[in-house]
TrEMBL record:
Domain of life: Bacteria
Species classification: Bacteria, Pseudomonadati, Bacteroidota, Flavobacteriia, Flavobacteriales
Keyword annotations of the record: ATP-binding, Coiled coil, Nucleotide-binding, Repeat
Keyword Repeat: yes
Protein name, UniProt field: Probable ATP-binding protein YbiT
Coiled coil spans: 244-275
Species this protein is from: Cloacibacterium normanense
Stretches assigned to the ABC transporter domain: 2-252, 320-539
Length: 541
């Protein structure tokens, strides 16, 4: 279907890809993973022809169509929503335009009639006469209401533009579908719909994503970009991750017999395969038992930060009590009638259909904003550490290097020594001279690792985290997930990372304009509960 042959890409002395050979076939979904800077998005650009390789080529089977999720959210601002989706099938749209131009001619000739007829046959074979209704159905599926279909793209909010561009990519059943971070800025319902759509998709999908639940749900294969190579493995992300961890352990056990290693691997595969939800993935993993050799999984160059939250003291039974909290912003009622009483050990997922409501709630209970009504009280034995959605204000002082920046957040004399600070930063992947660079030149991911360092030094017994996976690579997300799962204190967590909410949280609190929905259950149980769905309709109507 789509073949990559002897692909190399070099920028100066840096080799990004070296002799990559891979064939993407029909009926499979390939998740491309790799550390930040490994070249995932660049690889997709080469596949789509937006980036030329140094050597090698990419070939699409003749007659097949490739569709790509558009990253420029302003590219279609001068078109209607419906036309934007229709333009997703470029050939079909061009045929329609050519036919319309012919029929619009004042001197319409017999030759024009013959040409228009020929185009009409092709248009019919491509499903053109149903294209507009198909496009409208796709828009409805991603949550774009009927009345918005004739609006100009430039009039839409960014969150709606993202949905329209996704509908454009999916429109017309493309033979090869390429998606770079498709879940970014999508709401929970649209992500769930997309997961189901792709899990049943019969053509070829190639996707880059930092959403582990998404990769687990849709992927039949994982392509791991590491050491300038793309190594392909059958199975989803969790299978690859756990198999790679097993491979690392087995390499460290040099004296372990080959038979014991093989038995351990087979037990692992059998255990993993029995837990599969999708039939397509189950079939793929059964083949894995016969094909996979532990030596096929290569050592990784990835580095995992040491994110470890410890408490200076344990909290008592009084954690947090919120009474009748209400907030309106810019004329919009974000939430009201918010009554919450946290129990010791609660790890709470804070969710809402309005992300602004979540962030405003966090800002209020952290003391950075004021509610219009109501009150909140923290227990006297609690101390909180807050990770805000926007950390810009923390990185304004150009005079501070990372050592000095981090030193602000501890009063412990031993911790304030440069040796301790540099060692601490080293565990957070700021090694050597990196610890001395200015705090104002950091990437988004580096800022997040600094913010986690700050939280770790505070040794709080209550953690408040508003979208803590933003800008993180999969390695940091996995480490953070494990750390939050192991944390003994209380957590209030807002995140689009489905896997993190499911594995960390034991309670779900949803903020709505008419009050809260509060349940002691897992995130998956909450999403699947029919009574909660009925209640949501009432609370948001």
């Amino acid at each position: 279907m789509l073949t990559v042959s002897n692909l190399s890409l070099q920028f100066g002395k840096r080799v990004l890809f070296d002799e990559v050979n891979i064939m993407f076939t029909k009926g499979n979904c390939y998740g491309i993973i790799g550390a930040n800077g490994a070249g995932k998005s660049t690889f997709l650009k080469i596949l789509t022809g937006k980036q030329e390789p140094t050597t090698g080529n990419v070939s699409l089977e003749p007659g097949k169509r490739m569709s790509v999720l558009e990253q420029d959210h302003f590219a279609y601002d001068n078109f209607t929503v419906l036309e934007t989706v229709l333009r997703g099938n470029k050939k079909l749209f061009e045929i329609k335009e050519e036919m319309d131009a012919l029929y619009a001619k004042e001197d319409f000739s017999d030759a024009d009639g013959i040409k228009a007829g020929e185009l009409g046959v092709i248009y019919d074979e491509m499903g053109g006469w149903n294209a507009e209704s198909d496009a409208q159905t796709m828009l409805s599926n991603v949550g774009i209401k009927d009345e918005m279909h004739w609006q100009m793209m430039g009039e839409l909010e960014n969150k709606d533009k993202v949905k329209v561009l996704l509908a454009q990519a999916l429109f017309g059943n493309p033979d090869v579908l390429i998606l770079d971070e498709p879940t970014n800025d999508l709401d929970i319902d649209t992500i769930a719909w997309l997961e189901d759509f792709l899990a049943d998709y019969e053509n070829t999908v190639i996707v880059v994503s930092h959403d582990r639940h998404f990769l687990d749900t849709v992927c039949t294969h994982i392509g791991d970009l590491d050491y300038s190579k793309l190594n392909l493995y059958t199975g989803n992300y969790s299978f690859w991750y756990q198999a790679s961890q097993l491979a690392t352990r087995q390499r460290q056990q040099a004296n372990k017999k080959a038979e014991e290693k093989k038995k351990e691997l087979q037990d692992f595969i059998a255990r993993f395969s029995s837990n599969v939800a999708k039939a397509k993935q189950a079939t793929a993993r059964k083949k894995m038992i016969e094909k996979l050799n532990i030596d096929d999984i290569k050592p990784t160059s990835r580095r995992y930060p040491a994110i470890i939250f410890e408490m200076e003291r344990e909290a008592g039974d009084q954690i947090l009590e919120v009474k009748d909290l209400e907030k309106t912003k810019d004329g919009e009622l974000l939430f009201s009638n918010v009554d919450i009483k946290l129990k010791k050990g609660d790890k709470v997922a804070i969710i809402s259909k309005n992300s602004l409501a979540i962030s405003e709630f966090f800002e209020i209970i952290s003391g950075n904003a004021t509610a219009d009504k109501g009150e909140y009280n923290w227990g006297v034995t609690t101390n909180q550490s807050y990770m805000p959605l926007d950390n810009t204000d923390f990185f304004q002082d150009k005079s501070l290097n990372l050592v000095d920046w981090l030193r602000q957040f501890t009063k412990n004399d031993e911790e304030r020594h440069e040796e301790f600070m540099r060692g601490f930063l080293g565990r957070m992947l700021f090694s050597g001279d990196e610890a001395l660079k200015s705090c104002t030149v950091l990437s988004g991911g580096e800022k997040m690792r600094c913010m986690f360092s700050r939280m770790m030094l505070q040794k709080a017994n209550v953690l408040l985290l508003d979208e803590p996976t933003n800008h993180l690579d999969l390695e940091s997300i996995t480490t953070l997930n494990n750390s939050l799962s192991n944390f003994k204190g209380n957590i209030l967590l807002a995140s689009h990372d489905h896997e993190m909410l499911q594995t960390v949280c034991n309670r779900i609190i949803e903020l709505t304009p008419k009050g809260v929905i509060d349940r002691d259950m897992t995130y998956d149980e909450y999403l699947e509960d029919k009574k909660i769905k009925e209640l949501q309709q009432q609370m948001y109507s």
